[in-house]
Amino acid sequence: MSVENPLIVSPSRQPAMRHLILVIDNEFQLPGVLREGLAPIGFDVVWANVVAILGNEWLKKTQFEGIILNFDMRDHPGMAVLERLHEQGVEIPVIVMSSLSPREQLEEAVRKGARDYIVKPFDTALLREKCVRHFQPTVIMMSGDRWRTRDSS
Q1: How far apart are CA 97 and CA 117, in angstroms?
Q2: Cα–Cα separations (whole angstroms), residue 50 to 6, 14, 142
Q3: pLDDT tens-digit readout, 86-145
Q4: How does pLDDT run across 36-70, given as a tens digit for each residue?
Q5: Strand bridging mode 8-10 / 64-70
Q6: Is 103 exposed, middle or buried (0-12, 13-18, 19+ CB in 10 A)?
Q7: Who's near 106: CB < 8 A, 6+ residues apart?
Q8: How far apart are CA 119 and CA 46, in angstroms?
Q9: Helix or strand or coil: residue 44?
């Protein structure tokens, strides 16, 4: 059964934010944490269950800046999901995230096409830096503890 649009959108309350990141996970807690860390620098976080993503053509038609893929899903090994995304022709940059997978497996994911990886628990500053580097948002600089975007005054 094909799902037309399997997304649960968790937009920030800041209207200027339009850089979308897709979080692929079987649980809904991670996107909330990511949204809190990434909204201040210009990203909206969208969540989708891995079952809804695989084999669905809408992903190639959606304007995501990047994908954060949870590597620790019980029924869907992260490496298999990453490989399936590539088989489907998805060209959106991927950052894999894990608390259980050995670092070597995360490094293997990078060799197989992921842009980077993050080990949980993660530092928000590191998460932001990797998303800025790989997902190309409008963030142009960091001043003290504040990230500034082209839309900031």
Answers
A1: 6
A2: 10, 27, 33
A3: 888 888 999 999 998 899 999 999 999 999 999 989 999 999 999 999 997 544 444 444
A4: 999 998 899 988 887 777 766 777 777 889 999 99
A5: unpaired
A6: exposed
A7: 71, 96, 98, 117, 119
A8: 20
A9: strand
Cα separation values, 5 from 13, 49, 107, Å: 22, 11, 31
Per-residue confidence (pLDDT) for residue 29, from 0 to 100: 81
Three-state DSSP class for residue 140? strand
Number of H helices, E strands in the chain: 6, 8
For the chain, give the number of residues: 153
Distance CA 111, CA 64 (A): 22
DSSP 80-124: HHHHHHHHTT--S-EEEEESSS-HHHHHHHHHTT-SEEEESS--H
Which one-letter amino acid corresponds to residue 126? L
Q: What is the pTM of this model?
A: 0.78
